[in-house]
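Students often ask why inverse folding is considered easier than folding. One informal answer: many sequences map to the same fold, so there is more than one right answer. In these notes we will look at a single instance of the problem. The structure comes first.
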C-alpha cells in the first residue's frame, strides 16, 4: 500500500497515471481538490492486508504504471462499490493495474445528483477553454470528450476582468433542444448500466436543458480562473504550459479530482 501522507511514498505514487494527476491538483490547486488520504493498493491481497484502513476510503479509481498504456476506466456507481469485484476486472485489463482509493472532504453524492461536469483547459498566454455538461451529469462526459452542453473561451488577458456578470459573454456554444434530448437519453442509459435506480436517474436529469447556475461559475472564477495569472511563472517552471483540470461539482462547489498536461488530456479524450 502507498499513501500520500507518507512522503517516501509520493514519488512511487507519481509513477501511476491517475494518481499523478490527482497529486498534481493537490499540489498546485489544493483549495479545489476534495481528495484526502490518497492511497494505492496493488492487489486484492494488498487491500485485505490493509483492510481496516482501506475500508474507510469511500472513493476509488483504477490505475496503472505510467510506463504502460493508460487504462480505460472501470465504471462504477460511485458509492458502495464492491472493491473485490472491481479488482478482478482491473486485473483482467492489466496485471499491473491497481486501485487508487481516497476519502473526500464532503459526503459522497450519487452520480446523477450533481449540478455539472466541468473541464477547464488552460493554455498560458493564450486563454482558458471550458467545456461543461449540466445537471445530472458529471466529469466523465467532458474529460473523455463524450458530450458537451456549454463551451466558453476566455482570452488570457481577459482573465482579470472576467466575472460572474459577464461570464456568459465568453460562451461560444449552447446545446440545442434536439441535441440535449439525445444527450439526456445517453446519460440515462449509462447510469442505468451501473444499476442505479431508473426513477431517481430520470428525476434528477431535467427533461429540458437547464443552464449551469451562476453560483457554480462564481466558484470556478474565484477558485481557479482568477488564480491563473499570478501562478503563471510557477506553472511554467513545472512544465504546465498547457493542462486541464477536470471533474464535477459537489453541492454548490466545483471539486475536480485531476490535473493533467496536454498529452494526457488528449489521450483521455481518445479513450
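Output (designed amino acids):
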Amino acid at each position: 500500500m502507498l499513501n500520500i501522507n507518507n512522503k517516501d511514498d509520493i514519488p512511487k505514487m507519481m509513477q501511476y497515471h491517475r494518481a499523478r494527476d490527482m497529486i498534481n491538483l493537490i499540489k498546485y490547486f489544493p483549495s479545489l481538490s476534495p481528495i484526502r488520504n490518497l492511497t494505492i493498493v496493488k492487489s486484492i491481497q494488498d487491500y485485505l492486508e490493509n483492510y481496516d484502513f482501506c475500508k474507510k476510503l469511500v472513493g476509488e479509481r483504477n490505475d496503472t504504471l505510467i510506463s504502460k498504456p493508460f487504462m480505460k476506466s472501470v465504471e462504477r456507481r460511485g458509492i458502495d462499490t464492491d472493491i473485490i469485484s472491481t479488482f478482478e476486472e482491473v486485473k483482467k485489463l492489466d496485471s499491473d493495474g491497481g486501485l487508487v482509493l481516497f476519502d473526500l472532504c464532503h459526503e459522497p453524492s450519487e452520480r446523477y445528483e450533481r449540478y455539472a461536469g466541468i473541464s477547464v483547459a488552460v493554455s498560458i498566454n493564450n486563454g482558458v477553454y471550458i467545456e461543461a455538461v449540466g445537471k445530472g451529469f458529471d466529469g466523465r462526459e467532458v474529460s473523455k470528450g463524450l458530450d458537451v452542453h456549454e463551451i466558453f473561451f476566455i482570452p488570457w488577458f481577459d482573465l482579470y476582468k472576467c466575472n460572474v456578470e459577464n461570464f456568459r459573454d465568453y460562451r461560444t456554444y449552447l446545446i440545442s433542444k434536439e441535441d440535449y434530448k439525445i444527450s439526456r437519453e445517453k446519460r440515462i442509459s449509462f447510469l442505468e448500466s451501473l444499476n442505479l435506480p431508473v426513477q431517481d436517474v430520470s428525476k434528477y436529469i431535467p427533461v429540458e436543458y437547464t443552464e449551469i447556475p451562476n453560483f457554480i461559475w462564481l466558484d470556478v472564477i474565484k477558485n481557479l480562473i482568477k488564480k491563473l495569472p499570478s501562478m503563471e511563472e510557477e506553472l511554467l517552471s513545472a512544465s504546465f504550459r498547457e493542462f486541464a483540470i477536470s471533474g464535477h461539482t459537489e453541492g454548490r462547489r466545483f471539486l475536480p479530482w485531476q490535473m493533467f498536461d496536454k498529452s494526457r488530456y488528449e489521450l483521455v479524450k481518445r479513450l
